[in-house]
Amino acid sequence: MSDASYRDAIFSTPLDRVARFSFDERVVACFPDMIRRSVPGYGQILGMLGLIARRHLRHGARVYDLGCSLGAGGLALAGQLSPDAFRYTGVDLSPAMVARARETLAAECPDHAMEVIEGDIRTLDYAPAGMIVLNFTLQFLPPADREAVIARLFEALEPGGVLVLSEKVRAEDEQENAWLVERYHDFKRANGYSDLEISQKRTALENVLVPDTLAAHHARLAGAGFARSHTWFQFLNFASLVAFKDPAFKDADAPAPREE
Ligand SMILES: Nc1ncnc2c1ncn2[C@@H]1O[C@H](C[S@+](CC[C@H]([NH3+])C(=O)[O-])CC(=O)[O-])[C@@H](O)[C@H]1O
Ligand SMILES: O=C(O)C(=O)Cc1ccccc1
């Protein structure tokens, strides 16, 4: 068992040919460092999962974390919710990620019900769930597969269920998009990545991570049947949305809506 985490230096030396990005052992070994230095708002989004669950999750319901990587979503939830509040099912396609996620969750939250399944979120047989988290995962599916997955998740959600969808996004307006991408590269530089690392990773992610616009996400969610969705977080070209299965979403102690 190895729980060591290394600094991400995967794209730090010049490569003759930059291979397509994949979630292999090398990425797993430095993943916590990579994602924290590369995804603006990653820690803040994880920190909100428990708060969203507290408001919207039926006590004891299942939470799916799809594309769970090392189980960071599970760790965040277990840190904020009692063991009887939820059952966690992480799912990931990468065997290396799944092995490390299982070790980490067993060691860090032995009293919580935490399972990790090695599988493809496009074909998984979903059990009913109160909350589904897609934290930077949909963006890695071929665009043509995204609609069917969202439709299956809508079906898997129980009445009152909530979907949290975090994604790298593309701005509709070309100039706005270019500005956001440039500032994102500045963000990476400020987090210690060199120009070479930034440009080689960009090449590796071409046609692998394909961002949609926020409008496309909201339209897809509505098309699948979600009663409402909204963007609750954006930091540069990274955003997080919530989508509710029912119009009257559960929000137990929210104030009564005001008459217009
Ligand atoms: N079809 C698929 N089925 C299952 N898993 C998949 C599939 N395609 C990709 N993955 C998995 O989706 C994860 C995306 S990372 C998620 C971060 C995590 N949510 C986190 O909050 O730390 C995002 C990132 O690295 O930017 C990887 O572990 C893939 O193996
Ligand atoms: O690094 C990037 O350019 C990203 O878009 C974020 C990211 C983070 C971790 C794996 C792949 C992409």
Structure description:
It is a single chain. The chain is of the alpha/beta class and 260 residues long. The model has no long low-confidence stretch (mean pLDDT 94). α5 packs across α8 (214-224). The protein is built from eight helices and seven strands. It has a seven-stranded mixed sheet, sandwiched between helices. 40% of the residues lie in helices and 20% in strands. It has one domain (25-244): Vaccinia Virus protein VP39 (Rossmann fold), CATH 3.40.50.150. The chain has helices at residues 25-38, 42-56, 72-80, 95-108, 143-156, 174-190, 195-205, 214-224; strands at residues 61-66, 86-92, 113-118, 129-135, 157-168, 228-235, 238-244. α4 links the parallel β2 and β3. The structure holds ligand GEK and 3-phenylpyruvic acid (PPY).
